[in-house]
Amino acid sequence: MGTPFHIILFMILSFLTITYGQDCNTYTFTNNNVYSTCVTLPSLNSQLHWTYHPSNTTADVAYRQPGVSNSQWVAWGLNVDRPGMVGTQALVGLVSSNGSVQAYTSSVNGYGTGLQRSGLSFAVSGIRGELVNGDVVVYASLSLPSGRTSFAQVWQVGPISYELLINTTLNISVQLEESH
């Protein structure tokens, strides 16, 4: 029989394997949605799940960010005009201290963005977020620009400052991670 240290270490490693080891193909969403495509993004252990509907150029997406604690935010978005953060049309998940997630859209217009609530350059419907076992998932349906199926994407996670908690305009300093 192992020592208490070894048993605790085994339990921690098992939990981490379950939490962080789930790839796109093994993750089960709480709403039982199934997406046709998924990819583990190159940093932050993030995942993007989506189903593209060519008949109406929409995409149902679920952005999943593991390892998020209360009072943090996550963001994932598309830049329809160019690579880079500025111009990104983002889905934001804001985790409150009680564990609830506020999901909304934000157009990133500069490097000093506060991720304020705003409309995007394309329609978004059904946006919602949830926190499940330390994973934030933001769901939405995107009406993509007609004829376009390739976009730059950005994503990031960060802490909510005390000022944010008392400021209803949701001013967050952020620098999003880029990928093309």
From TrEMBL:
InterPro entries assigned: AIR12_DOMON (IPR045265), DOMON_domain (IPR005018)
Keywords in alphabetical order: Electron transport, Membrane, Signal, Transport
CDD domains in alphabetical order: DOMON_CIL1_like
Localization, UniProt: Membrane
Any single GO CC term annotated in Swiss-Prot or TrEMBL for this entry: membrane
Domain DOMON, first and last residues per copy: 44-158
A Pfam family matched in the record: DUF568
Protein's name according to its UniProt entry: Auxin-responsive family protein
Provenance organism: Artemisia annua
